Amino acid sequence: MDIALIGNPNTGKTSLFNNLTGSYEYVGNWSGVTVEKKVGILKNQRDQLIDLPGVYTLNPLSKDEGVVTIFFLNEPFDMLLNILDASQLRRNLHLTIQLLEFGAPIVIGLNMVDVAGNRGIKIDSRNLSACLGVPVVPVVARTGKGCDSLAEMISAEAGQPDIAFEVDYGPAVEKATAALKEKLAGRTKIPARWLAIQFLEGNQYVREFLLNFIGGSELNELLEFVETQLKTDGVKETLEQYMYRKRSEAIETVVARSMVRTEGAGTPLSEKIDRIATNKILGIPLFLLLMYLMFMLTFDWLGFPLSDALDAVITGPVTDWISAGLAAVGASEFINALILDGIVAGVGGVLVFVPQIFILFFFISLLEDSGYMARVALVMDRVMEAAGLNGKAFIPMMIGFGCNVPGIMAARTIETPKERLLTILLTPLMSCSARLPVYALFAGAFFAGDKALIVLSLYVLGIVVALILAKIFSITVLKGETSLFVIELPPYRVPQIQALWRSTWEKGKGFVKKAGTFIFAGSVLIWLLSYAGPGGLKVPMDDSYLAMIGGIFAPIFAPIGFGTWQAGASLLTGFLAKESIISTMNIIYFVPDEATLQGLLSQHFTPLAAYSFMVFILLYVPCLATAATIYKETGSRRWTAFSIGYALLIAYLLSFIVYQGGKLAGWA
Amino acid sequence: MLDGLKKANAKGMVSEMIANIIIGSAIFGYAGWAFYKFIKKSKQGKCAACSIKGSCSSNACGPEKRK
């Protein structure tokens, strides 16, 4: 038997799936985390449970939600398992009614009865069952309570007859339904009434399905008939709104009979916190304050001393061991220089920042797992809306703080094509972890007292530039409709250490791995280019091939404060992977440790030029992997080229303003 | 005796040379391979280049498609 598990996002569907099938699955934090179709075997070893994406309605808003409608139209299944959030019964029932209209056997799992209880809501599951005409089993999916009786009920209900529950949508809709029923008679197994209701509500997938049987003009006629009928009846809403209202009225009757509000329960803690966290005035400053604290911990209080200690180990004992080993095997001068000046400097220079990256990721994971990040998306919604996007677009952007590639992938959850493309184009402006070592190095060298503030300013600059560009793009090259932002705010919770560590490691391991692979290879190549020149091997670095290549770009960067071949060469390698900017600099300015490098940098950069350099690094181009992802996601060379082109332009422009403006203001 | 020393010295030089060649080719070989792999993976973009592909549950990177 095939059972489809369906429910609103964040109703505990994933937990229930795991409890019923006994399988393990990754549990994420964002609403609608289950996008793929997952199948598990129930504990009776007989039936299959198909996990569908969380949706609020069968009328899809986004591509993700379309998966569910396509499933209903095309795939055979024997039974529906609908999971409801008892604390959000009204909203959840909209989907339930659409499922009941489909007419397949259905069992309802009433989840989060405990959460509802805390909010002073008590649901009488027997009354609910009587109203809807289907079995309702209260469960707590998180702990597994009630799951056994639910499993029993599923077995018992197999093959039960059709459901009697019907919403009265009024004579016009019912007439249209009857007409459609007649036309479809015997031609499809899918219930005609369900098809008619979905079609009238504007479900595009259902419309396409109906076109297999009925002509487009006939369908339009049917639609017009209902709309005119409603108008003559004095209905002012759109057809979709009208049907939503009718359904809401039916839900009110059900809720009135099955929901009891108990007295005495106070405001839940989550709501108390949200009064401040999502406050119109305090929300954004609070978010900035938290980010500032996060950067203080990453750069000042905790991360910096740790990185310093690691640096001491790499430049001290590790380098000593390697040189002793090289001397023992009688390594030549070339091999010696390759390993010590190339690999140790390049890879070591990047590895030094591992503690800071992990600390930052730990705090980002903490904010995600505690439920705060969902609030940030809500708080940002107001600002994002002014920029032609909505709060949902902030989620891919926040993921982009880790790595831009998954950020761009996450843009798939955005409904309208215009907003999706905008998000894809702008996510690379979010400062990913690979750019962090550059900030750490430069902020440490030039702004020792205000490291966290300088880094925060760069992160905020990335967001602000993205928002301004979103506005500009949405009124010029990318016109189109905007969508409504709906986000589920999960209750705050204390994150589990194990889950926190896993999510930190997932985010940070790529950085460590890359140091051992690409940064290693890049270091060898960069070192070789700096060791060899037209004059042969072991040339002074200023006469090397690397100096020649970097020198081509130097004049271009002169007006923005860093017209040296060294800067040119490191920015060039940065296109492949941003981390390599640091490894290249370590090799070029080869010095025993980070502190000396910072001293040396101050000879080549002024503080103003250093800030201009950091701004340029923040914005200049998406790295190779990001550019390739943009290409794959947009399917367009033009948009990929655009994403690189506009970034270069805006980076140059802003660095120019920072540097020349700063000079005018007398900061140089 | 001087002859013996010279021979030993020559032997040492040969073994040093071999060690140098082995280390050098191992480094350049690995670097070349890592570079090739990285560029290939990055160019694929999407899941191949994604830093969270191991735990990602979005449609495109699901376990079935990752195979």
UniProtKB/TrEMBL annotation, chain A:
The keyword Kinase does not apply. GO terms for molecular function: ferrous iron transmembrane transporter activity; GTP binding; metal ion binding. PROSITE patterns: G_FEOB (PS51711). Residues 1-160 form the FeoB-type G domain. Gene3D superfamilies: 1.10.287.1770, P-loop containing nucleotide triphosphate hydrolases. Mg(2+) 2 binds at residues 18, 21. It comes from the Bacteria. Its main location: membrane. It is found in: Cell membrane. Keywords: Cell membrane, GTP-binding, Ion transport, Iron, Iron transport, Magnesium, Membrane, Metal-binding, Nucleotide-binding, Transmembrane, Transmembrane helix, Transport. The chain crosses the membrane at residues 281-301, 321-340, 347-367, 387-409, 421-447, 453-473, 515-533, 545-565, 572-591, 611-631, 643-662. It is a multi-pass membrane protein. GTP binds at residues 7-14, 32-36, 51-54, 111-114. PANTHER family: FE(2+) TRANSPORTER FEOB, FERROUS IRON TRANSPORT PROTEIN B. Belongs to the TRAFAC class TrmE-Era-EngA-EngB-Septin-like GTPase superfamily. FeoB GTPase (TC 9.A.8) family. Probable transporter of a GTP-driven Fe(2+) uptake system. This is Ferrous iron transport protein B. It comes from Mesobacillus zeae.
